[in-house]
Write a structure and sequence with these properties.
By secondary structure, this protein is an alpha/beta fold. The chain folds into 2 domains: 145 residues, 3-Layer(aba) Sandwich (Rossmann fold), CATH 3.40.50.620; 91 residues, Alpha-Beta Complex (putative n-type atp pyrophosphatase, domain 2). The chain has 6 helices and 9 strands, in the order E-H-E-H-E-H-E-H-E-H-E-H-E-E-E. The strands form 2 sheets. A 5-stranded parallel β-sheet has the order 3-2-1-4-5. Helix 4 links the parallel strand 4 and strand 5. The two termini are 27 Å apart. The relative contact order is 0.16.
Length: 246
């Protein structure tokens, strides 16, 4: 995607990306070389676009692929599809396979970032101090910088802004009261987002899914030149479920 397609106020990809650019006010702004820590979901997509809209050079997408059933820090569903997103963007994809235990996961991720010739990495951390603090300490050990442009933004405005700016956000996993199997494989629209926001208010869950209420896959958007064509099967146990993409 060319930077000229970032047609938003002050180059911000979504309305909630407030605050100064790290180099704002510099006499000679530097083009940063960054990697994007990407799960394929909405938050890492927004962080990716944020970097592109600043004219930074995105050198690679890095994905932690969990081989076990759980992880306190990283998304599990559909992460293998980041490879297809990377191909669409003409970027290298670095797969970091690990077991879902934070010390092992971070050690493997640190090794991957350390192998790259970049100034730092961008991630979609929104509210998790657990995630943000560990990424920042990793960056410090590597002599890099860690950027989290979504940090503490309004979840409602963040998600609504992405939909309004053309991000196609598919729900691939749900595990919150009020979210049924009908949401699995659904691509959010302004109308369904309003319904999601109402359910979040009624059932008291995070509308942006920050508490693990649901997982997402971005199949299209302004950061991509094409659209992922996917098909899948709904798996539902009566309480939670996931959309298995073929």
């Amino acid at each position: 995607m060319s930077v000229s397609r970032c047609k938003t106020p002050q180059g911000r990809p979504v309305s909630t990306l407030r605050g100064k650019h790290p180099l704002q006010g510099a006499m000679h702004p530097t083009t940063m070389r960054v990697a994007v820590l990407s799960s394929g979901g909405k938050d890492s997509a927004a962080a990716w676009w944020w970097a592109m809209c600043r004219g930074w050079s995105v050198e690679a997408l890095v994905t932690v692929v969990i081989t076990d059933d759980d992880s306190p820090m990283f998304q599990i569903p559909s992460t293998h599809l980041v490879e297809r997103q990377a191909k669409m963007a003409g970027l290298p994809w670095i797969e970091v396979r690990t077991v879902g235990q934070t010390p092992h996961d971070l050690a493997a991720l640190e090794h991957a970032f350390g192998s790259l010739d970049v100034d730092g990495f961008v991630s979609g951390a929104l509210r998790s101090d657990y995630q943000k603090s560990r990424l920042e300490r990793m960056a410090e050990r590597l002599g890099m910088r860690s950027w989290t442009p979504l940090w503490h933004q309004s979840g409602h405005d963040h998600l609504k802004g992405m939909i309004d700016h053309g991000f196609e956000i598919m729900m691939t996993g749900v595990s919150a009261e009020g979210l049924t199997e009908k949401w699995l494989g659904h691509v959010l629209t302004p109308e369904s987002f309003a319904e999601l926001a109402s359910l979040a208010n009624t059932h008291r869950f995070h509308v942006e899914g920050e508490g693990g209420e649901y997982e997402t896959l971005v199949i299209g958007g302004p950061h991509l030149e094409d659209r992922l064509m996917v098909d899948g099967t709904v798996h539902w146990d009566g309480v939670r479920g996931h959309y298995e993409i073929h």
